[in-house]
Amino acid sequence: MAHINKNYLKLPGSYLFSTIGKKVREYQEANPDSDIIRLGIGDVTQPIAPAIISSLHSAVDEMGSADSFHGYAPDLGYEFLRSAIAKTDYQDRSCNISADEIFISDGAKCDCGNIQEIFGLDNRIAVCDPVYPVYVDSNVMAGRTGEYDPEAGRFKDVIYMTCRSENGFVPELPEEKPDLIYLCFPNNPTGAVIKTAELQKWVDYARKNGSIILYDAAYEAYISEAGVPHSIYECEGARECAIEFRSFSKTAGFTGLRLGFTVIPKDLEADGEKLWPLWARRHGTKYNGAPYIVQRAGEAVYTPEGRAQITEQIAYYMGNAKIIKEGLAKAGFEASGGVNAPYIWLRTPDGMTSWEFFDYLLEKGGVVGTPGSGFGPAGEYYFRLTAFGSRENTIKAMERFSNL
Ligand code: MLT
After folding, report:
1. CA of 170 relative to ligand 1 center, distance in Å
2. Containing H/E element for 160?
3. What's the burial of 36, exposed, middle or buried (CB within 10 Å: 0-12/13-18/19+)?
4. Under a CB-based contact definition with an 8 Å cutoff, are residues 302 and 51 in contact?
């Protein structure tokens, strides 16, 4: 008789963005004339930049000819892409990371969810609250979190690091010692950032306690201020305690193309064993690599032309972020984020819960956002808007906010 993985039954509800998608579809069906503006899931709206498209086209043509066709990609990803990443994202920023420490994948979400597989079930994880749900849910599925406490909205064996407005939504070092620490900066969902000196404290803490930091830097391209690290490897000693995840989704609009990577330094160890060979083994066994054409598209992101074009695209989205911040302030909302990140985190008005405000905003304003409580109980009474809409829709959404 077959048995299921009962850990899945511990997961409350469906995946946050699936729940939102379903609610919006139902609303749209019931109100077919409604003109809905989607600022919920962080999905980009600008087309892929011309330099990247042109690289995609030539790669597609290569695939059509026997002498330039490509089959399975190398296990870690193509060298041309890993070298471009190592140089531009790391060595040019004085981070000591080499091309063979980079594993190309089809996106940071999968890597963030899968990385826990190389760690034992007896590891204690620490996450921020609010938090990107993938870190917690993937550990629940694996059986590392204990039971769910519906009253607290938390899993019993997880160390939650509450992020409040008073501490700029940056967590404090936990008193209970975690084995695995998930950090995401610039932060999803709050849009908060951590300064280099502050991140250095986490690296020192992890090294002292033998913890591993799982650092999600998917939004680093949105950093506009000095003193904010683009990579955890800007901190001294991070090679000994950190794995980093990066994404092309938000950097270059690849949400539909799919491309990301994970960095595991060769000397990084847990239990006296190197982690690099474990992830290489997992990668080789369970994954056949991002498509050649997409890796060529990724390479174009690092050309001078590609860089200039994505910089312009990011500036466009950050222009939206500014419009949202100003619009919210004018409409009397308290909001943060949106300066080094494409997310704006606002307080719900009049003590409405996050989901009450979700319904209210959809019905009264036709705007979709993400309820803060979907990211954890500390997100209750907050709401997330993304800057990834079109300019026109962003302006329209703010007009609707002012008329709520
Ligand atoms: C989000 O809206 O939080 C992100 O788009 C989700 C993701 O990147 O998986």
Report:
1. 19
2. strand 159-162
3. middle
4. no
Which ligand 1 atom sits closest to the C-alpha of 41?
A: 2
Whether domain 8-47+307-402 has CATH 3.40.50.1860: the reply is: no
Q: What DSSP state is assigned to residue 388?
A: -
Give φ, ψ of 342 to 5 degrees. -85, 15
Q: How far apart are the first and last CA of the chain?
A: 56
The CA distance from 66 to 89, in Å, is 34
Which DSSP category does 171 fall into?
P
Structure tokens at 204: 């020192």
Q: Tell me if 8-47+307-402 shares its fold with 53-304.
A: no
Q: How far, in Å, CA of 349 to CA of 180, rounded?
A: 36
Between 23-32, 77-86, 310-319, 382-391, the lowest mean confidence (pLDDT) is in: 23-32
- To test ligand 1's pocket by mutation, which of 16, 38, 135, 188 has the most ligand atoms within 8 angstroms of CB? 188
DSSP collapsed to 3 states, 97-149:
CCHHHEEEECCHHHHHHHHHHHCCCCCCEEEEECCCHHHHHHHHHHCCCCCEE
Give the distance (Å) from ligand 1 centre to CA of residue 73: 26
Please report, as a single letter, which amino acid is at residue 361. L
Is the shortest distance between the CB of 41 and ligand 1 below 6 Å?
Answer: yes
Instruction: Tell me the C-alpha distance between 7 and 141, whole Å.
Output: 5
Q: Where are the domains of the chain?
A: 8-47+307-402, 53-304
* Residue in 251, 187, 267, 194 with CA at minimum distance from that of residue 227: 194
140 lines ligand 1 (CB under 6 A): no
Is it the case that residue 14 has pLDDT exceeding 90?
A: no
Residue having the nearest C-alpha atom to atom 6 of ligand 1? 42
State pLDDT tens for residues 180-198: 999 999 999 999 999 999 9
Q: Which residues pair with 345 in a beta bridge?
A: 336, 384
| pTM over the 0.85 mark | yes
Residue with tokens 């500014």: 322
Tell me the fold of 53-304.
Aspartate Aminotransferase; domain 2 (3.40.640)
Residue 132 CA to residue 153 CA, distance in Å, equals 15
